[in-house]
Write a structure and sequence with these properties.
CATH superfamily: Ribosome hibernation promotion factor-like
Number of helices: 3
CATH topology: Double Stranded RNA Binding Domain
Strand order of the largest sheet: 1-2-3-4
Radius of gyration: 15 Å
Strand content: 35-45%
CATH architecture: 2-Layer Sandwich
Structural class: alpha+beta
Number of domains: 1
């Protein structure tokens, strides 16, 4: 299980925190399957208020084997922003390790 550190989540409602936890459970399993030796994850949430509208930015860092992967996403919708940042992490893993290519060669 990945150790998760969240920063800036105190502004979220309990419902939103629960929604995040469900998303984290889903994506953390995917990340752990693709990336072995995951040590920790840090998710930093920032709110930016622009004339009554709130924009969210999320910075994520995944530490593994003494290295780290970073991703960030910005959007007006919080849930979409979470999805974006987790998808970017998955893409970073794919780019760094070509995980899907390895799986294809195993299936031959």
């Amino acid at each position: 299980m990945v150790t998760l550190q969240t920063i800036g989540f105190e502004v979220l409602t309990e419902k939103t925190k629960d929604e995040f936890q469900k998303l984290w459970d889903e994506y953390s399993k995917k990340i752990e399957n693709k990336l072995k030796n995951v040590e920790a994850a840090k998710i930093h949430l920032k709110e930016h208020n622009h004339g009554g509208k709130t924009k969210f930015s999320i910075h994520a860092v995944i530490d593994y084997s003494g290295k780290s992967l970073k991703a960030e996403a910005v959007d007006w919708d919080l849930k979409r922003t979470f999805h974006k940042v987790f998808n970017k992490i998955e893409n970073e893993i794919e780019h760094a390790f070509h995980v899907s290519d390895q799986n294809k060669s195993k299936n031959r």
